[in-house]
Amino acid sequence: MFEAARGIDLDPRRLRRRAWWLFSVGAHGILLVGLLIWSVIHVDEVAPPSVMVTFLAAPPPPPPPPPPARRKSSRPRKKPSTLVQPTVTAPLEPSPEKPNEPENDAESAGVEGGVEGGVEGGVVGGVVGGVIGGTAIEPPVDPPKPKNVAPYVLEQNLLYRVDPKVPPHILSAHRGKEIVSTILVCTTSAGDVDPKTTRILSAVPGTKEAVLEAILAWKYKPQPIPLCAPVRLVIRVE
User: b vs e for 156-179, b when ≥16 Cβ sit within 10 Å of the residue's Cβ?
Assistant: First the structure.
């Protein structure tokens, strides 16, 4: 029994070293497990993309085609032939005397509010010499057509803009890159973006609806006539 007790090491220094070693191994194991759990749970937030808008110059309209050349007729013109007819003098006969017609002294009664020189059946307030039944109707005025201008003209007149809301999966696919779209922006005289003439020229698939929705919310300074210019919209995804 005493020999078995002698085989057990009861040195307090060695016991302390073993206790510290076991505590250190357990602490490192707990710290390692905590780091693994934190790396699985923690997700980095996606930073909002920075948007940059550039304007492109519209190409000048092509010149109109030249008018077709008129064909010259090779047929000679016929000179009119003159016929000489002999003059025949007919005997003079006395013309019958016309009976004297009675003068119509009684003038037709006019209409109250009429003017001198009017016609029967006319409308009060009409114009002398007009047609019976005719009314003065102004012809319809066509709205002014949009004018193609340089991109900087729209850029200087921009008052309010909205950035497009690109879907998150497209932002993740283009992280560290640029999402470029080209839009033909046409404004009305009041400064609103015209949805009838504004259209997407080129865009990344899946972003056309978001870009067009944002462009239609932009506001510009009112102008005498509608304006059109190409706009280059750049979204930088960081």
Answer: ebbeeeeebebeeebbeebeeeeb
